[in-house]
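Bumping with the actual sequence this time:
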Amino acid sequence: MVARLTAPAVRRLFLLTGAVVLVDTMFFAALTPLLPEYTEELGLSKASAGVLAASYPLGVLLAGIPSGFAAARFGVRPTVLAGLGLMATTTLAFGFGNSIVLLDVARFAQGVGSSFAWTGALAWLIGLAPPGRRGELIGSVMAAAIAGALLGPVLGGVATVVGTEAAFGGVAAITLALAAWAWATPAGSPGERQPARLVLAALRDRSVLFGAWFVALPALLFGTLGVLAPLRLDELGLAAVLIGATFLTAAAFEAVLSPLIGRLSDRRGRRLPLRAGLTGSTLVAATIPWLGQRWLLAAFVVLAGIAFGSFWAPALSQLSDLAEVRGLDHAWGFALVNIAWAPGQALGAAGGGALAGASADAVPYVLLAGLCALTLALMRREPVPA
């Protein structure tokens, strides 16, 4: 049986985990205000812009299973260190990149590093923390991640002024400092080896697959929003700094609400916040494409961030619960999160951009609203934990 940490030790480990995900999402979200600039300078189509945005989650997807294997086999701390080292290197490469191929490759590799860092850090925290606080802790970690998303557009805005080399070079230096912090933090030994058949069996479990959908769906929503909304706001005359401010405001609301939603899911079950998120996401996604006034659209982007972000704490807690029920190492549980999130984010970014370019922005938004409504209806029949 794994020994639980004392409250001060849990807080210290939470701070490390929160710092890791904050820095990662800060770089991830920094692309949002930069996307119109890259599109103009490199002559990118909406589809090409979507590929750039999708490169990161594709890296996360590729590293999903390897990151879970590494954390379960070699330990959570080596996995976090490997992820942070790769993140620092690729963030620096992205800052100095001057071609779309280099930018795509750097962002893809950064996603690989992110997968290792997230899987290792979350498994480290949840594996040693009190079980009854899982939703609250995950919600608080997600608040840190959202704070990174909040700072990301600011970083992107700063990069338009001081240059991407200086801005992303600073992020790389912070990432290396986090690696030193992780190196100095005590960690337990890896548990017993678990055969791959246990993970493959979990991926065939209907309840696990439906639980993973609640991670993939908001990723689809955010992926599409992250590509189409900045471009549309730019078309309507909103400056890059104000586009960043719009996403910053949305992230600020998410960061405040995430721990509260996580605590609610611990006390009232996972279904309640998931249903609320589905309802809000259906309404917002169905409305956004018809808005032609820039400030009204900006306001709905904020509402979209709140609605889409309400999934994270209950969905991640739910997948962690399901992994534990099946006897999987916590590292494998969070590897399942990466496997679920990455294709949704990639398809939302690349597929949403390509579909909008071939037709109109309304097409992907309306399809996503329909998926949310269908999922809400299916919740009455599918084995979603209470």
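The tokens above came from a reply further down the thread. The radius of gyration is 19 Å.
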